[in-house]
Amino acid sequence: MKSCLSFAGVLFVIFSHAQNLQIFSVPKGYQKIAEARGDLDRDGKDEVVMIFDTDQSVSADESLPEGKDYQRVFYILKAHTGGLSIWKENRILLFSSGTGFYPEDNGPPEISIKNNSLTFTQTFNTNSRHTQVYKHTFRFQNGDFYLIGSHDQFEDTCDFNFLSEINFSTGKVIIDKAYSSCDENSKIPENTHKEFIYKPKTLIKMNTFKIGAQKFKIPGSHDNFIF
Q1: Which residues contact 96 (CB under 8 A, 6 or more apart)?
Q2: Widest pairwise Cα distance in the chain
Q3: Residue 181: how many CB atoms within 10 A of its CB?
Q4: Which pLDDT score is estimated for 10?
Q5: b or e along 93-105 (b: 16 or more beta carbons within 10 Å of the residue's beta carbon)?
Q6: What pTM value is reported for the model?
Q7: What span, in angstroms and rounded, lies between the C-alpha atoms of 150 and 166?
Q8: Which stretches in the chain have pLDDT values below 50?
Q9: How far apart are CA 48 and CA 73, in angstroms?
């Protein structure tokens, strides 16, 4: 009898939490640019993740399409019989629509949900030769979403391909620098590859994470690992 009451109590808490979530409707002026579905909290039900270009411009650069650089937002939504409710909202992880050297050629951020983890991929050019790819993976644990993986790839069309990657679950860090050249007469630097273990004292929550705002010292080097 006691176990039945305990189970009923758990269901009541879950139901009450769901009831307290705000009903979702697309804000006026927002344009959906990406969507994915998958189970993020291991309850056997799929959540819905949507990314929007908002109607809020973050710059007045007239060289951008229509002179606009829109802030982006994503929502993690809970599905229920009445529709969708907002579980999480984030306005700091995604770069704005005008980011990069050729923003009009950028694809939208990509969303993938695998093994109950959520990954966002953002790709853009930093100049006419350089491509930047960011991948960040989050997992719901201990009542919140935490950063468990960071992937940073910076590539030149001729000269280099740099990779900085960390898995916060295992602590494994990979730093790989590969060099090449389109000029057969140029001297090409030696490739370097470094792996080590780094485990932070605490993981970073999704809604406090900002790309490039964190760093730690690379062992045996004067450089920092920035993520």
Answers
A1: 58, 59, 69, 70, 71, 72
A2: 82
A3: 14
A4: 39
A5: bbbbbbbbeebee
A6: 0.88
A7: 5
A8: 2-17
A9: 14
- Please name the residues in contact with 3: beta carbons below 8 A apart, sequence gap of 6 or more: none
Residue 68 has what pLDDT? 83
Q: Contact at 8 Å (CB) between 158 and 185?
A: no
pLDDT of residue 65: 54
Beta bridge partners of residue 57, listed in sequence order: 70
Q: What is the pLDDT of residue 6?
A: 46
Angle subtended at Cα 49 by Cα 44 and Cα 55, rounded to the nearest 5 degrees: 160
C-alpha to C-alpha distance for 172 and 67, rounded to whole angstroms: 42
Closest CA relative to residue 40, chosen from 4, 74, 6, 13? 74
Tally Cβ neighbours within 10 Å of residue 124.
20
CA distance 168 to 173: 9
Give the chain as a 3 state SS string.
CHHHHHHHHHHHHHHHHHHHCEECCCCCCCEEEEEEEECCCCCCCCEEEEEEEEEEECCCCCCCHHHCCEEEEEEEEEEECCEEEEEEEECCCCCCCCCCCCHHHCCCCEEEEECCEEEEEEEEECCCCEEEEEEEEEEEECCEEEEEEEEEEEEECCCEEEEEEEECCCCEEEEEEEECCCCCCCCCCCCEEEEEECCCCCCCEHHHCCCCCCEEECCCCCCEEEC
Q: Which residues neighbour 188 within 8 Å (Cβ) at sequence distance 6 or greater?
A: 179, 180, 181
Residues 6 or more apart whose Cβ sits within 8 Å of residue 73: 30, 51, 52, 54, 89, 90, 91, 94
